[in-house]
Design goal:
Blueprint (H helix, E strand, L loop, with lengths): L3 E8 L1 H5 L3 H10 L3 E8 L3 H7 L9 H8 L4 E9 L1 H9 L12 H5 L8 E3 L3 H12 L2
Antiparallel strand pairs: 1-3, 1-4, 2-3
Helix pairs in contact: 3-4
The structure holds inosine-5'-diphosphate and magnesium ion (MG).
Length: 136
């Protein structure tokens, strides 16, 4: 049975800063993701804290929100069969050092915090995250 999904992808500040936007988008397109919507923006700290609220008890929460709000990001709605898992697989492990060869984080990630991309981790969070950036 077909299961076309939408997921939220973010090209994080470390990757935008290195002009990796087009290279990363090409990887998505080569892996049959459709980029339905996209925009470039900069979050303020409050907005980053809201976006990453699920991590508010983590020791790295403050640094994470500082980082996500430190520069421009590209947010995209990606669509594909099983888009959520497919994107997580293509991104690779959170820590680029542990990510498999060929994954976006292995290719471009600099460290566990500056790991170049975000991707929704469940259908429920995909809806919440898409709404966060593309509320109509
Ligand atoms: P994910 O991005 O692979 O879903 P999460 O566990 O949801 O990983 O963490 C969200 C983000 O928080 C990560 O992408 C990374 O930027 C940052 N992060 C996660 N774990 C650590 C850590 O141990 N130290 C610093 N930053 C971390
Ligand atoms: Mg996550």
């Amino acid at each position: 049975m077909s299961n076309i999904e939408q997921t939220l992808s973010i090209i994080k500040p470390d990757a935008v800063e290195r002009n990796l936007e087009n290279e990363i988008k090409t990887i998505f397109q080569n892996n049959n993701f459709k980029i339905l919507k996209e925009k470039k923006l900069k979050l303020n700290k409050d907005e980053a804290e809201q976006f990453y609220k699920v991590h508010e008890t983590k020791p790295f929460y403050n640094d994470l929100c500082e980082y996500l709000s430190s520069g421009p990001i590209i947010v995209m709605i990606l669509e594909k069969e099983n888009a959520i898992k497919s994107n997580r697989d293509l991104m690779g492990a959170t820590d680029p050092n542990k990510a498999e060869n060929g994954t976006i984080r292995k290719l471009f990630g600099k460290s566990i915090d500056k790991n170049s991309v975000h991707g929704s981790d469940s259908p429920e969070n995909a809806k919440i995250e898409i709404n966060f950036f593309f509320k109509t």
